[in-house]
């Protein structure tokens, strides 16, 4: 506690439990009786004391003031080393903590941050007794990072808690959209969950920041959901889509069924293109055939999210053998649930999926494209959020859930969209 101008040392000469010697402010030497705990500088602090036998016998008249290295202290009694380690740690903690406000000159370089850094750089130093490292970080103010709950667990909580879900689960500007309801802001989204139908999760992807799932309502209707979280772990976006009523489901290829409508839209789009040409504002980019984004031959990894991105941005628009490239990412034993169709016509193996893909391509308008909006970051399953662009429209919007097997091939899929959405 002495100032720099009064460097007189202070020490205990009558107690076997603790002898503490300090020099100029915090720049001098400090020692405690706990085995291996001493400090005169960061380097000295991280070094063990010599053994008791290494100390010379005390000179006549007692021990002198410490040297610059802080090594000339009395031999320590074995009993005190074993009985009073806590006393030693507390002494070190007080001096190290006080040094943050009292250090001057050379002592300024002996901050607890520097001590910790030196401990990391010198692995041998941290092999000393645990009290040494504990004392080195006393007084350092650290803010532990909050562990964020994975999006997959948050999604499950939304379904399990339903009307009882905490309002704070949603971000202030949370957005919720579905064919039936679109709303924003925390209070309105929370209010919607008070009356939202009860839905039970069938499958959920293992996403960290984004997650998706498939579900079944109590009335038997099925669907899929997609959520995204912000940096604070709050739900900031939700999309949910439910399958259409049985009376509105397709029994054969939906693009072939809607061909009269799409042909009309193609004609109107052609007329619009002609008018734009006359006005000199023709949008050629929108009418170009979609192409692969990077020209990859295969997914970057076998993680579900990478497989989904490859399917949507590469394989689907490959210039050679696009169907074969898509099929290569699916397992021989798969179930692909397109909820816009009746259950009986779902592709349930690779051959059926090949026919499904070929029929879609044969009946798809030339400038129709499917755009991937977002994908969850799952390893074993991933959920894609997408929309269709055709004739100047960005509809319908949909969700597709993918599950992969141990080889990273898709063995389960569920696609759901609403033509009015």
Task: Give a structural overview.
The structure is a single chain. This protein is an alpha+beta fold and 421 residues long. The model is unreliable at 1-55, 63-96 and 98-144 (pLDDT under 50). The radius of gyration is 35 Å and the shape is globular. The chain has helices spanning 42-45, 78-83, 85-102, 112-121, 130-136, 151-161, 186-195, 254-257, 259-279, 284-287, 304-313, 322-327, 350-363, and strands at residues 30-31, 38-39, 170-177, 182-184, 199-204, 210-217, 222-229, 235-242, 330-338, 369-375, 381-389, 397-404, 410-417. The longest helix is centred in the middle third of the chain and has 21 residues, at 259-279. The protein has 13 helices and 13 strands. It starts with 29 loop residues before the first strand and ends with a strand.
């Amino acid at each position: 506690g002495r100032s720099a101008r009064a460097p007189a040392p202070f020490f205990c000469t009558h107690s076997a439990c603790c002898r503490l010697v300090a020099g100029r402010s915090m720049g001098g030497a400090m020692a405690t009786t706990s085995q291996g705990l001493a400090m005169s500088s960061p380097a000295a602090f991280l070094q063990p004391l010599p053994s008791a036998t290494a100390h010379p016998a005390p000179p006549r008249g007692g021990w002198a003031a410490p040297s610059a290295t802080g090594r000339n202290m009395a031999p320590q009694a074995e009993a005190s080393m074993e009985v009073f380690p806590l006393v030693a740690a507390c002494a070190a903690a007080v001096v190290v903590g006080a040094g943050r406000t009292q250090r001057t000159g050379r002592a300024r370089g002996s901050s607890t941050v520097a001590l910790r850094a030196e401990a990391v750089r010198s692995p041998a130093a941290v092999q000393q007794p645990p009290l040494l490292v504990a004392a080195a970080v006393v007084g350092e103010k650290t803010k532990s990072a909050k562990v964020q709950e994975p999006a997959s667990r948050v999604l499950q909580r939304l379904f399990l808690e339903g009307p009882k879900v905490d309002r704070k689960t949603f971000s202030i500007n949370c957005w919720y959209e579905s064919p039936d309801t679109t709303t924003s802001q925390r209070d309105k989204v929370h209010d919607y969950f008070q009356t939202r139908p009860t839905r039970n999760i069938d499958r959920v992807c293992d996403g960290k920041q984004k997650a998706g799932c498939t579900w079944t309502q109590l009335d038997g209707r099925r669907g899929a959901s997609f959520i995204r979280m912000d940096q604070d772990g709050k739900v900031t976006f939700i999309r949910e889509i439910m399958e259409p009523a049985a009376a509105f489901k397709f029994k054969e290829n939906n693009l072939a069924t809607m061909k009269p409508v799409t042909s009309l839209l193609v004609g109107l789009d052609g007329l619009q293109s002609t008018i734009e040409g006359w006005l000199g504002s023709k949008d050629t980019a929108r009418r170009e055939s979609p192409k692969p984004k990077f020209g990859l031959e295969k997914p970057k990894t076998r993680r579900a999210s990478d497989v989904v991105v490859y399917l949507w941005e590469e394989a689907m628009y490959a210039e050679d053998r696009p169907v074969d490239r898509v099929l290569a990412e699916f397992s021989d034993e798969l179930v692909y649930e397109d909820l816009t169709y009746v259950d009986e016509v779902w592709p349930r193996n690779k051959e059926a999926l090949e026919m499904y893909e070929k029929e879609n391509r044969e009946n798809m308008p030339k400038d129709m494209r499917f755009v991937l909006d977002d994908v969850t970051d799952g390893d074993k399953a991933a959920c894609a959020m997408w929309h269709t662009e055709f004739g100047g429209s960005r509809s319908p919007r949909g969700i597709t859930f993918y599950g992969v097997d141990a080889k990273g091939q898709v063995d389960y899929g569920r696609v759901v969209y609403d033509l009015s959405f």
